[in-house]
Amino acid sequence: MEFKVYLKQKHVLKNGERKLKDISEDQYMNRLENMRLRGIYNEEKQIDSILERKVQEHYRVWKSYLKTIEHYLSSKNY
Q1: pTM
Q2: CA 39, 45, 47, 48 torsion: positive or negative?
Q3: Per residue in 53-71, pLDDT tens?
Q4: How far apart are CA 74 and CA 43, in angstroms?
Q5: 45 closest CA partner among 9, 15, 70
Q6: Measured between alpha carbons, how far is 51 from 67 in angstroms, rounded to an integer?
Q7: What is the rounded distance in angstroms from the CA atom of residue 64 to the CA atom of residue 27?
Q8: What is the 3 state secondary structure string of 23-62?
Q9: For residue range 7-56, what is the model confidence (pLDDT) as tens digits?
Q10: Environment class of 49 (CB within 10 Å of its CB; exposed 0-12, middle 13-18, buried 19+)
Q11: What is the DSSP letter of 17?
Q12: Which domain of life does this protein belong to (predicted)?
């Protein structure tokens, strides 16, 4: 499933998830694109310690970026 579609539907697909506002969906898309452009995220299949460290080194609010990757990986399972 495409990431943007997943973000719009994740509250239906997964229990306990809230519906995202359009601005939040855009923020997730921008975060993912920026991590790709900077070479931080290169389509890894899981979050390992190396990827986590790269995210922490580049972003002050790094947990939001890891959550973005988690959602992206989940979207690949649908």
Answers
A1: 0.94
A2: negative
A3: 999 999 999 999 999 999 9
A4: 13
A5: 70
A6: 12
A7: 10
A8: HHHHHHHHHHHHHHHCCCCCCCCCCCHHHHHHHHHHCCCH
A9: 999 999 989 999 999 999 999 999 999 999 999 999 999 999 999 999 99
A10: exposed
A11: P
A12: Bacteria
In single-letter form, the type of residue at position 19 comes to: K
Structure tokens at 58: 């580049």
Residue type, 25: E
**Single-letter amino acid code for the residue at 22:** D
- Residue 52's Cα: distance from chain center in Å? 13
Do you know the residue count of the chain?
78
Which of 63, 36, 73, 20 shows the shortest CA–CA distance to 7? 20
Q: Which residue shows structure tokens 């921008």?
A: 30
Which value, in Å, is the radius of gyration of the alpha carbons in the chain? 12
